[in-house]
Structures are given as C-alpha cells and as structure tokens.
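#struct-pred

JT: dropping the chains for the assembly here, can someone run the whole complex?
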Amino acid sequence: MSNLMTVDILSSIKGAKSSETISKLFEVIKNANISSNNFSSKNIQNAVSLEELRDDIVLESTEIEKKIIIENFPKEKNGYLVVSRVIEE
Amino acid sequence: MESQIREIHQLLVDQKISCTSLIQEKLATLKPNSHNTVNSLLEDLALEKAKKVDEKIKNGEKIGLLEGIPFGLKDVYMLQGTMTTASSEFLKSYKSAYTATAIQKLIDAGAIPIVKENGDSFGHGSSSENTIFGAVKNAFNKELVAGGSSGGSAVNVSKNYTVFSIGGDTGGSVRQPSGYNKVYGLKPTYGRISRYGLLAYASSTDCVGPIATSIEDLRIVLNTMSGKDVKDQTTYVSDEISEENISKNDTIKTIGYFKNFIENDAIDASIKSDFLTSIEKIKATGINVKALDFFDAETLISTYYTLAMAETASNLSRLDGTNYGNRMEGKNLKDSYSITRSENFSEETKRRIVGGNQVLSQGFADDIYLKALSIRDEISENFEKDFQEVDIIVSPVTPNSPPKIGDSLKNPLAMYLSDAYTVGFSLGQLPTLTIPQGTLTGVQLTAAKNNDDLLLKFANFLKEVI
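RK: done, full complex below.
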C-alpha cells in the first residue's frame, strides 16, 4: 500500500478534503506544552484482566435475529444475498 | 423525595389511572412531533406491554416500581425489531436485530419504551441539527437549538412527553442538552452501564446517560441499568445507590471550581455572575470552596475532538453498505464503498471521519494522536490530584446560552467550543451530572470515578441552596 494515500482514499469518501476547522484543533495539540510525551495509558485502563475474559464460545443467534439480519441486507436475488462486485485490479 | 416514577407507580397501583391510558396519553403528546423529537413511535409495542401491566394490576398482582413507566430512548440504542437510524441517511432503514443491555434491563424491570428520539446523527454534533429528521427545537423557545447530541431526549423529558429518557454522552451529549432544556442529565462513570447495543461514536468516552425531571428518578433508572455485562468488558460491578444514602449531605465538606472556566472572555456575563453567586451560596452553608487550576478550553476541545474523531473514524469504517445500510453500487467494491459513504454521511460526519483518519495516518500519529493521548493522561492526573483535595467539582455546563437554530451549522468551531466545559470530564471518564439550577444552562457536578452517589447526594442538597 502506498504511503501517500490521500484523505479521500483513506476515508473511502469521494472528494473528501481535510478541514480548516479540524486543522486548527491539530495545531493546538502540536503546540501544547506537556510534561511528558510518553503516553502511558495508566489512567485510562479499560482492558479486561485475563481472569475475567469471557469464555470463547459461539453463541447461536435467535431465529428473529437471523431474520432481521437478512432483512437488513441491502440486496437479495433469487434467495441469495448479493454483495458488491469484487475488486478486479 | 420528589419522583414522577413513584407518583405514577402509586396512581397505577391505586388504579386511579390505567397503564394503557397513560401510554396513550404520552403517545398523543408525541404524535404531533412539535419539537422534532420523534424519529419513530413504538405504539404497538408500547400498548401491548401496557395491556399486560393492566392485566397484572387487575389480577391483584404486585408490580415493580418501573413497571408501566413510559420512557424514550435516543435513536442510537438497539431495540429488537425497531428502526435504529442514528438519525442518519445511512441507517434510515436499519432495523435492530437485538436489544441493548441497558434498555433490556429497563424493559425487564417493566418500563415501557415509547419513542426513538432524534439527535445529531451518530452523535456528531452539539445542537441536534445534524439529523435527517429536522432540527430539534428547544423546549422553552422553538427558535433555539435543543442542544446535542441527545437533544430529542432532553426536550421530551422537559416537555413531559416521556417520564425519563435515555441519551448517550460522549463529550457532553446528555449534560449539555439537559442544561439547555432545564432537566437533570447524568453521565455516569465510564463502565458503570454497559455500552452493548449503543451505536459506537468514541468508545473510550461513550456513556449511557439517563435524563429525568428529578434526582430520585435518575437514581432509580441508574440503579436499574448499572452493572457488569460480559458483552461490554469495560463494565464493572457497582453498588446500588440507596435513597437514604443521597437524602442527606453528611460527607461533602469541600468543593472546587476551575478558575479558568470562569475567568475568561468566552463565558457569557450572566452565566458567569450566576455561577459565582451559586458558589457564594454554597460557601454560606459552611462548605469549603477551592479555586482550582485546569487546562484551557482550547486544549480540552482539541484533545477531545482529536481522540473522538480517531475513534469514530475507526468505528464508522464498518459502515460501507455491505451487510446493512443504504448501499449504492459502483463499478467495483472499492467504488461502491466510497459512493455509499460519500452519499450517505452528513458533512459533519465526513469532517470527523476525515479528521480521524488524518490523525491516525503516518506523519500525524506521533505529533498529534499520541500527543493527545499524553495530554489526556495529564488531564486524568490533574483530576486525581484535585479529588484528593475536594469531594465535588462544580462548573457551568456551557459558556453560553443556546444558539439560534441554523447558527451552529455555519460555524463548526464555535459549536465545538460550546463543549468546552463538558469534554474534560469525559476524557477523565468521571461521573458528571447536570442540574437545572444555578445558571441559565444549569450547573455541572463532577466526582471522582465510581462516586456517582456523591453527585446525587450533592444535587439533592443544592435543591434548597442555590
């Protein structure tokens, strides 16, 4: 993958451009004076401990869940769910 | 203690009203959609549930406190079989396949969902104007915004269209509209309530937040929704908050406020003077008040938005029209993704996705994203230090009064700055409560992590003080 991906490609949004407003926010961060530049994450610890990891089991969806998931699928043809054409490049 | 839930419960038990008539009455007030708060009404579901409550009462069976109580939920919560649009074009036809844990807990306790509520799409906004359902109008003046992103929920509670509503708060989305519409709005400690089934905006600050007209109602709803959930591994076990615990202030001796929130040019003169008057009234009760130092508004806003944009860019990358959503076909898969995303996301959502991807990309990540995380660390350390000195931090909710509908969309930076007083507490993952007192847009109370009970206790105390 190229290191020079533009923001529209990165975001999968046609014609997307960086915003002046957002750039101003980034400038504030760049210029901020902080005591340490080493992100430690010590205060924002949301990770679950190993003892508390939930069991790795497959949970069967209910019939109603399956029905709604299929209903939400954008396209159906002859009983099959249709995905977009795959990339040919 | 004053409580709509308790009053209605008693009326139902005494058979002075039926649950069906109560639900019908609430639905009738919501149907005209006078303030654009309604994305969809859950009429059939609600009336079916009400009938069961009436049958129970008729049969002499005991009902729980929340049984038959009508509530609203922001249209970002999954409720099986109902539309969950996130107020967006992208998901305008999306139906929930399952139910959010917090909502399921309320339903299990007997509360009846009656409406999916309008707000900024995907939570992206502070005015509830960034929506396909029309800008939500302020409960007190229809020319003004409701605030956001949970604007529909706050207005419904304020107008008494719902007894309580469940909003979502990432950077102030429950607290700010609660302030703008003069109701109580709580952002609990991060992890107290499961986020499972809440459409993710910024996962490290997203919180389920109840909005109500009384402290007691908030307590009842908070207790019902709290608790560890294996489906959200950031949740933790919390103690139930008793009515007795919050009825008397015997523990809060010292409070603080941030000097720089008040001593700057951005704050409205009347909000500033009302806030300082409130502080003086608190002092007069014998409580110590300390003026504290904090980060400036620009740094807080920039840190919050940098991190929230990075997280939302990642969370919304799943929306590509493959499995659900409004797919638009292109000449190949990549093209389909980008057409679908370009056509269906609003300008504000695109701005945040692009900003988020930008900040996570090579050349930006170290200088901005990682630095923002370091600033967040320092903010948290600052809070830890503060809460060794004070029990509660009191602050205004917003620097200004609600803007006119249309003004925020023209000036996104001004809209971001309106979150100046709320985002810091989100970054700290602290419990924060808006109370409809003290200034035109209310006052925020913040405590150390997992001290949500202190907020309710102090709010109760302040009812007679400010």
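JT: nice. Chain B has a mean pLDDT of 97. DSSP finds 18 helices and eleven strands in chain B.
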